[in-house]
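so my prof wants the structure for this chain in the tokens format not the other one, which i didnt know existed until like an hour ago. anyway here's the sequence
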Amino acid sequence: MTTSTFSSWASPDVLRKMPLIGALVMVLGVSACSDGYVEFPTDQQAQQSLGENVEVVVLTAQNIANFASPARGFSLTTLPGGRDWTYTVGPGDILSVIVFDHPELTLPAGPQRSAEESGFQVASDGTITYPYIGSLQASGRSAGQIRSELSSRLADFIPNPQVEVRIAAFNSQAVVVSGAVEQPNRQPLTSVALTLIEAINAAGGFADVADQRIVSIQRGGRVFSIDVQGFLEGGIAQNNPILRNGDIVNVPRRRAEEAYLLGEVARPDVVDLSREPITLTQAITRRGGLQQPRANARGVLVFRADGDITRVFQLDTSTPSGLLLGTRFVLEPRDIVYVLRSPLQRWNDTIVRLLPSVQAVRTVDDVAN
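here's what i got, hopefully its the right format
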């Protein structure tokens, strides 16, 4: 390999974008200089030549469905409290009480006073004071429960009283929405249930840098991680829970999730996977395609670590059917895509040379995260 050939895909600009794989690029550059040509082996033949810790997968129409969606999928979280919601009155709330045919028991609103200004405010001890009956416990009860007690106690003074109780101002219960939303705020809870996605929308919606998959809710001294993307895209209803008094919603910033595209491509670079699933064909196409005529379209490799096992996927893109298969292969964070040079290097020799550097990159990336 000449110096100009190596620099065409390992320029300083590219290396600055990919600091974690600078050492890997150097190894790949050396590997690409090897001579010789052999046919690609089958995955079984390759498996035998590379050892137990390497799993080789030749991508075909028969197995591509196994890699057609992100491996992480959607997670499901069920919060305590269920889906039922009834607002219970608390200190600071203001109640509007109407006794039909008895205007003397209803504080007049008047032309300059709203229902909130003319209502009964729940005191810090959770009570209100009402004519005839004196102190009445309101805190911890629904408007219907308060109405029932008022009706029962007023019956000692008024035959068959008809009472209506409404909450004129909701002041006692609220949630906080913070983090990567457009307008972090405090939102009062009302008689209408407030769901997580409604609260986020009321805070201006997700910011561009938001990670919709790990939204946290603090409740009762515990922190729950909610995959909101699972609700929006997967329809998982449990991932849009009803919020409760005191909940703190935090939307985190999206962490970098990248794959690395190297070898004989027009513009070697990192590939951002944090916003959307990206397929192998998309990644190569968005970076200008294969470097013609040097690239060997049959030698598109994807290295993927899974614990102690490194999987090496091989895709033949020399035909339209191969490119179509690539549109169904979804990249995962920290995948390393490497396009071999033509004439093809010795296949298993290339894999053996790349594996130690691939594993080293994974180790450094794990420490960085």
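also thought this was worth mentioning. The chain has a mean pLDDT of 80.
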